UniProtKB/TrEMBL annotation:
UniProt name for this protein: Sodium/potassium-transporting ATPase subunit beta
Similarity field: Belongs to the X(+)/potassium ATPases subunit beta family.
Protein localization: Membrane
Gene (name only): Atp1b4
Topology term for the membrane: Single-pass type II membrane protein
Function: This is the non-catalytic component of the active enzyme, which catalyzes the hydrolysis of ATP coupled with the exchange of Na(+) and K(+) ions across the plasma membrane.
Amino acid sequence: YVMLLTLSPYTPTYRDRVSPPGVMIRPYLHGFTIAFNVSKRSTWQPYVDSMHRFLQAYDDKVQEEKNIECVAGRYFVQGGHESEEKKACRFKRSLLQSCSGLGDPTFGYSRGQPCVLLKMNRIIGYRPGAGVPVSVDCKVQKGNESDLRSVDFYPGNGTFDLMYYPYYGKITHVNYTSPLVAMHFTDVKRNNPVPIQCSLKGEGIINNVNNDRFLGRIIFTLSIGK
């Protein structure tokens, strides 16, 4: 009990061996296979509904009310006592452009060009990239590379801006919303399962551990029928 009293509820006591971040995707409904037929709305509508629910916290008005405009390209380090509430930088869903669900409320699924969102797991105090933004790259995990002919990344060229880091924990960083990178798969082979691997790229990132498919990368399958 006495030892527990020495632990801070705000930050981990030891952070000298912080693991690089894992990643996760949205939508995530039935495991790591996104399968639908373009001509059958009922097969892709659940993915669309899931995306809209997930992005509610990123609505522009919500972000403008709760969070602040930050200086891009540098870490947002906040001083003061560790118990003080921390400010959070705005991440508006409009930054996701074609994958925001604003211009196209179906996120491309109705055209067989699905959007998939990727986010890094939160790690208290972690500053990814050692001063250079971490980016995302996608390729065919196994098989013919020509099955994946075109991917667009948002925002910008698919990077996690430094201003969203470090994260100070859910107790004090109450309005924090994790930054996202949207992958818009605009040209994927139809009627054939295509295994995709999307990886983080940057200083200090580990993405090649064979027994951990979520550390610095994620593997999922796109199966788009007519």
